[in-house]
Specification:
The complex is a heterodimer of chains A (412) and B (178).
Chain A (H helix, E strand, L loop, with lengths): L6 H10 L1 H14 L4 H8 L4 H9 L3 E4 L2 E4 L1 H11 L7 H20 L5 H38 L6 H23 L7 H18 L3 H32 L2 H5 L4 H11 L22 H10 L27 H11 L5 H12 L5 H8 L1 H4 L4 E14 L2 E12 L13
Helix pairs in contact in A: 6-7, 6-9, 7-8, 7-10, 7-12, 8-10, 9-10, 15-16
Chain B lengths: L6 H10 L4 E2 L3 H8 L1 H12 L2 E4 L3 E5 L7 H18 L4 H7 L2 E2 H10 L3 H6 L6 H13 L3 E3 L4 E4 L3 H22 L1
Antiparallel strand pairs in B: 1-3, 2-3, 4-6, 5-6
Helix pairs in contact in B: 1-2
Classes of the chains: A mainly alpha (412), B mainly alpha (178).
Chain lengths: 412, 178
């Protein structure tokens, strides 16, 4: 806990003295601890108050054999600078132990405290995240080391480079491959597959919903882990294992590209002609003019809303009074010219007669098939409604005669 | 004052299209025959320097450089790395061989520089890369032979020279530090 300052003050101090911290971080990366002489050398031209603050803010810790960067700060700097020490495979295998222990306990769980099961699941989740991050930063560090050798950045003679490559392969790359290779029984990937199978079932099976949620979350992370580990495994097989063969060809062009790709968005690039559409001004002229003219814009007068007697534009009566028309038809039958009747009814009843209304009225007949029947008469009728002209047959409509009302011929 | 035959083509290619003029283009012949004239012409008229090499030419300006340049460097850099990793001879592949789009896609998919590709807007997925190839073609950096294959034009050598200069610069820095 930083007692002597607010957290943001400590962070600002880190920023203000970033170069110093970068140097200290790199020293620690190389030697594991910063001995007193080295520390003195590095802080020689800094004010005493800087050293005091570093220690007060607990960014640097003093110990028996020297100084070290406090662990959380060290991790943060590693992330910012993207510089790691490749992990010895022994360091990675500790995760296998952790996963195995947690997995055993999670499986063995009987009806005890649900809380401890939840905690174990959370812990597994956490460990897995850490493991994945470690593998990824480790592989990328190994990759960079191999690219360094490949591009021959240090101008090292070929034999020495091969020796270093062999060292990397034997102690770091091949063991990493064994850890990641799902085929190998002892690999972490293999174990994670077993866990995945178990979790896949438990996320539906377990009676407690909070636990099921945790299993679900873990399941998703495991699926993600599979893809991420596969990626890293590919990098190992494709690029790291064949390192020695790759060292055989050296290329100035490739070295150049590798330098460039270290900071592809910050590095200078060669000038290339831009397409010119005969504009003799710079590319920002449009924006510039707009900004300049904005200051002369007059604000439009505020819009005042007045309440007036205004008639609404559309007073179409939405409601269609079917009953009215049904009743009228019942009273009117028999009707000699059905569509003409519809038209007249519409004009009489509707305030806004239109084709839509006409069709609605007309279709009533076809909806009331059990009540009415119709026959085609002679000729046709033309009806104009608005700008549409309907050309319709003459139709006679009458009440339907029911079979009972027809007199049956009596047997003589 | 008379202008050479094909003058309009030269100006259109170099100035308006902003592309590389390649040996084999009729306009390149015009340029080649009157290099001194064109150097003066572009400098006096537009303040642009003519970069003329035996196989290609283009106009250079310090201002408003095309952001395409960075995309090309990233694309070519990663492509070179992958080709080398696969064991090909870089210069031979780029200068003389026909490449397949599909082959490039597969290499990029598995590349350890995938992160860089994902962070480059114009290269981040298959669709973006397809547009990118079209832009490369318009600038005459590649030549599409059909829907599946392409080759690099001599213009790509400009970028390889850039890579060389980066390597040399850094080597000099390393030597000075010793």
């Amino acid at each position: 806990m930083i007692l002597k300052a607010e957290p943001d003050k400590a962070l600002r101090f880190l920023e203000d003295n970033f170069e110093l911290f970068r140097t200290l971080y790199r020293l620690q990366l190389e030697h594991s601890v910063i001995n007193r002489d080295l520390f003195e050398e590095v802080t020689e031209d800094k004010a005493d108050v800087i050293v005091k603050r570093m220690l007060d803010y607990k960014l640097i810790i003093s110990q028996a054999n020297g100084f070290r960067v406090n662990e959380p700060v060290r991790t943060f700097l590693a992330f910012l600078l993207n510089e790691f020490k490749p992990l010895l495979p022994e360091e990675l295998t500790k995760y296998r132990q952790a996963f195995w222990e947690l997995f055993k306990r999670i499986q063995a769980f009987q009806d005890d405290d649900i809380l401890i099961l939840a905690e174990r699941l959370d812990a597994f989740y956490q460990e897995l995240q850490e493991f994945l991050e470690n593998v990824e930063s480790n592989t990328s560090q190994l990759l960079r080391n191999s690219q360094y050798l490949k591009a021959n950045k240090g101008e090292i003679p070929y034999s020495e480079r091969v020796r270093r490559a062999r060292h990397l392969i034997e102690y770091y790359i091949e063991p990493l491959n064994r850890i990641l290779d799902v085929q190998k029984k002892q690999s972490i990937t293999n174990l994670l597959n077993q866990v995945s199978a178990y979790v896949n079932v438990e996320r539906f099976n377990h009676p407690h919903s909070g636990i099921r949620q945790r299993f679900e979350r873990l399941h998703e992370l495991l699926r993600d882990a599979e893809a991420r580990i596969l990626r890293q495994s590919h990098v190992v097989t494709r690029e790291l294992l064949p390192l020695i063969e790759r060292l055989q060809t050296e290329s100035e062009i490739l070295s150049g590209w590798l330098y460039f790709l270290e900071r592809p968005f910050l590095h200078q690039v060669p000038v290339m002609p831009a397409r010119r559409l005969f504009t003799l001004t710079g590319s920002n002229i449009g924006v510039g003019v707009e900004l300049f003219l904005q200051q002369f814009e007059r604000r439009p007068a505020d819009i005042v809303l007045k309440e007036e007697e205004t008639k609404p534009v559309n007073t179409r009566q939405v409601y269609f009074n079917r009953r009215h028309y049904q009743k009228s038809l019942q009273e009117a039958v028999p009707v000699g010219n059905y569509f003409e009747w519809c038209y007249e009814m519409m004009q009489a009843h509707e305030s806004m007669p239109g084709t839509e209304r006409f069709l609605k009225i007309g279709s009533l007949l076809f909806e009331e098939v059990d009540q009415f029947e119709a026959d085609f008469g002679e000729g046709r009728i033309q009806l104009q409604i608005g700008s549409t002209v309907f050309d319709l047959p003459v139709m006679e409509v009458r009440l339907k005669t029911t079979p009972e009302t027809t007199e049956k011929p009596t047997l003589a | 004052m008379t202008f050479p035959d094909g003058h309009q083509d030269v100006v259109e290619a170099l100035l308006v299209d902003g592309r590389f003029l390649l040996e084999g283009d009729p306009a390149f012949m015009t340029l080649k025959q009157e290099v001194d004239f064109y150097q003066a012409f572009f400098m006096e008229s537009f303040g642009l320097a003519l970069e003329y090499y035996s196989e290609y030419a283009f106009l250079q300006s310090g201002r408003d450089s095309d952001p395409l340049s960075r995309d090309v460097c990233i694309f070519l850099g990663i492509l070179c790395y992958e080709l080398d990793r696969e064991g090909y001879n870089l210069l031979e592949q780029l200068s003389f061989h026909t490449l397949e789009f599909e082959q490039v896609e597969q290499m990029f998919e598995m590349s350890s520089f995938r992160e860089v590709l994902d962070a480059t807007t114009n290269l981040q997925d298959v669709q973006a890369r397809r547009n990118f190839y079209n832009r490369l073609q318009r600038r005459r950096i590649i030549e599409k032979l059909d829907d599946d294959t392409f080759r690099f034009t001599p213009a790509h050598k400009y970028f390889l020279e850039f890579a060389r200069s980066v390597a040399r610069y850094n080597q000099r820095l390393a030597e000075e530090e010793e």
